[in-house]
């Protein structure tokens, strides 16, 4: 288990801090339920900056490859992560509520003990679609059935409930 990076968010911005590293997927526990397996790692870079309006913020870049479940066939789905985001640091709840009213910016509460791994995990989870699937030509739900002699049966694709219909007829 690697050491977790904890920063004082406003101090990090004031000092123009910058950190980068790798996080094994094993350490991102909240992400585990969404993963097919825990192989791989995410590469991150975080830097403290002021935006054009002189507001403090964190620029976060995350790249990597994770394996998810295809929501159609439930097989492994390789998903590439390539995120870049700028998070405004709100000094209090009032500033955070004002930032939430503006759809063009993302904001988090500035805290003295911000766990960067949790922040990165949050950003990855928020970036995922509700139902990720293979492309139609890659999904095993749509692959043609073999007819036994090595050629594909192109007359009719397998219906997802064909096995259920067969069981229903026998009972």
From TrEMBL:
GO terms for biological process: ribosome biogenesis. Pfam families: YceD. Keywords: Ribosome biogenesis. GO terms for cellular component: cytosol. It comes from the Bacteria. Belongs to the DUF177 domain family. Plays a role in synthesis, processing and/or stability of 23S rRNA. This is Large ribosomal RNA subunit accumulation protein YceD. It comes from Nitrosomonas oligotropha.
């Amino acid at each position: 288990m690697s050491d977790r990076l904890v920063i004082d968010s406003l101090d990090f911005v004031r000092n123009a801090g910058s950190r980068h590293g790798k996080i094994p997927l094993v350490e991102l526990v909240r992400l585990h339920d969404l993963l097919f397996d825990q192989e791989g790692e995410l590469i991150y870079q975080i830097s403290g900056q002021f935006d054009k309006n002189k507001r403090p913020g964190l620029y976060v870049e995350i790249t990597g490859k994770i394996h998810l479940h295809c929501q159609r066939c439930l097989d492994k789905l390789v998903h590439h992560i390539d995120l870049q985001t700028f998070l405004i640091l709100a000094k209090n709840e009032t500033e955070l509520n004002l930032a939430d009213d503006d759809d063009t910016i993302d904001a988090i509460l500035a805290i003295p003990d911000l766990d960067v791994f949790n922040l990165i995990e949050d950003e990855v989870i928020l970036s995922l679609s509700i139902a990720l699937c293979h492309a139609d030509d890659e999904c095993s739900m749509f692959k043609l059935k073999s007819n036994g002699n090595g050629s594909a049966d192109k007359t009719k694709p397998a219906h997802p409930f064909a096995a259920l219909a067969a069981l229903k007829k026998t009972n």
